[in-house]
């Protein structure tokens, strides 16, 4: 049986090999920067060219992984998301094509190398995880997103780049979610 670490190591290794810029985001990234929580999917932002996406799809072992190539190509066109499922353990990789927004571009440029599920991997900075979680909270995903932000604030609060947070929270209109998350951290 494989673990999320095995699935993540496979994915980041392949993305590195193909030269596809990527970073772990979502719950695995918030767990790396804050308080751990369980989830059954690994969110990874990728920024492939069409040729790199074709190479990625060709490199996937379809005896072990499920991927719908048409959905992946459509995701690249729409800047959406597609999944790769590790059939050995049910772990799902949500591969999110980097959005064409100013924040998404800067977020990928700021990525850092950290440890995710015991695997060295590029991941979004703590500040960008906070911003992403606030956006998900605004979209109505769940209050769990705000709890994740509170966990990062509790563990990393003094080290956070507050001017960077203030700039993007203001530009993205996330003030209400930010206030609610801060209240949870106190």
How does this structure look, described?
Helix content is 52%, strand content 19%. The protein is of the alpha+beta class. The longest helix is centred in the first third of the chain and has 14 residues, at 4-17. The mean pLDDT is 94.
List key phrases describing it:
two-stranded antiparallel sheet
Q: Briefly note the structural class of the backbone.
A: alpha+beta
- According to DSSP, the number of beta strands is 7
Strand content: 15-25%
Helix content: 40-55%
How far the N terminus sits from the C terminus, by CA atoms, comes to: 40 Å
Mean pLDDT: 94
Low-pLDDT sequence parts = none
The ordered H/E elements are HEHEHEHEEHEEHHHH
Shape: globular
**In which order are the strands of the major sheet placed?**
1-2-5-4-3
Number of contiguous helices: 9
Largest sheet: 5 strands, mixed
C-alpha-based Rg, rounded: 16 Å
Task: Provide a brief overview of the structure.
It is built from 9 helices and 7 strands; from the N terminus they run αβαβαβαββαββαααα.
List the helices and strands and how they pair.
Blueprint: H1 4-17, E1 22-25, H2 26-33, E2 41-46, H3 50-59, E3 65-67, H4 69-78, E4 81-86, E5 92-97, H5 102-109, E6 112-116, E7 119-123, H6 126-138, H7 144-156, H8 162-171, H9 175-185
Parallel strand pairs: 2-5
Antiparallel strand pairs: 1-2, 3-4, 4-5, 6-7
Helix pairs in contact: 2-6, 2-7, 3-4, 6-7, 6-8, 7-9
């Amino acid at each position: 049986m494989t673990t999320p670490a095995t699935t993540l190591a496979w994915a980041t290794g392949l993305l590195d090999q193909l030269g596809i810029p990527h970073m772990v985001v979502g719950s695995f990234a918030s767990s790396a920067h804050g308080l751990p929580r369980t989830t059954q999917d690994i969110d990874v932002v990728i920024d492939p060219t069409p040729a790199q996406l074709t190479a990625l799809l060709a490199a996937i072992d379809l005896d072990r992984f499920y991927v719908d190539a048409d959905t992946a190509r459509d995701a690249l066109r729409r800047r959406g998301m597609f999944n790769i499922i590790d059939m050995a353990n049910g772990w799902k990789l949500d591969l999110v094509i980097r959005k064409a927004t100013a924040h998404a571009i800067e977020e990928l440029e700021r990525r850092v190398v950290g440890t995710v599920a015991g695997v060295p991997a590029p991941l979004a900075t703590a500040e960008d995880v906070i911003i992403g979680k606030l956006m998900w909270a605004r979209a109505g995903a769940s209050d769990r997103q705000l709890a994740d932000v509170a966990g990062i604030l509790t563990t990393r609060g003094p080290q956070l780049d507050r001017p960077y947070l203030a700039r993007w929270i203001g530009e993205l209109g996330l003030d209400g979610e930010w206030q609610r998350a801060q209240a949870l951290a106190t």
